[in-house]
Amino acid sequence: MRKIGKYLRELSVVVLGVAITLSASVWVTNRNEKIDLALYLNAIKIELEENLSSIDDAMEFFQSEAKYTAYLQLHDEQSLNMDTIIFYAHTVCYSLNAYQLNTNAFEMFRSSGAMRLMNDKDLLISIWKAYNRCSSMEKMFDRYYDRKFEHVQKETEFSKKGEINYHDMNYALAVPMYNFYAFPLAISILNAKEEGIEPVKETISKLERFNE
């Protein structure tokens, strides 16, 4: 009986040691996972802030584009001011700005499997919505760039051939990029700004509270 009792005590010590080791291992794993999750979410917050800044830069560009569109819409051929037209020709008409919004942090977050660690499903959904809106905004920017690039190419080709004389031509060609700016594309992008950036702002705010 003494041998059995001694054996049971020794076995209990071994079992307790294993249990403590496993518990410690689980604690360390959970702690590391929480640290990793916090790092991923902080990277996403920084990336969304950078994207928001890029969108603001893009909107400054589109404001200039929209001003030229508005000027053309408010004036007929006789009331156009040549100095104003030349000003826009030099500062707006042939400017081509491309804007890229990044998703690197989000892609790393997705591929890492860290999403399974998130208990806050509302925050997770918010992150997805924010990046979907960033993607939609970038597609709008790209479509605008591509369309404007085509018009710039056409008009500069006319210019190289000496076919454009801003003082003596029909309305569409005498006014730089008239066929492009006749449609309020830049204005429509500006109007879509608030709806586009609101989910991004909300997500950044939620991430800030999460990291507190």
Write up what this structure looks like:
- By secondary structure, the chain is mainly alpha-helical.
- It has one domain (2-210).
- It is 79% helix and 0% strand.
- The chain has eight helices and no strands.
- It has helices at residues 2-74, 82-93, 104-112, 121-160, 171-174, 178-181, 185-191, 193-210.
- The protein is elongated.
- Mean pLDDT is 81; it is low at 24-28 and 166-171.
Give the topology.
Elements: H1 2-74, H2 82-93, H3 104-112, H4 121-160, H5 171-174, H6 178-181, H7 185-191, H8 193-210
Helix pairs in contact: 1-3, 1-4, 1-7, 1-8, 4-8
Segments where pLDDT lies below 50 for 5+ residues? 24-28, 166-171
Q: Tell me the β content.
A: under 5%
- Number of helices, where a helix is a run of at least 4 consecutive DSSP H or I residues: 8
Q: What is the β-strand count?
A: 0
Give the H and E element order: HHHHHHHH
Q: What does the main sheet amount to?
A: none
Helix content: over 70%
Count the domains. 1
Radius of gyration equals 30 Å
What's the shape?
elongated
What class do helices, strands and sheet pairing give? Answer: mainly alpha
The average pLDDT is 81
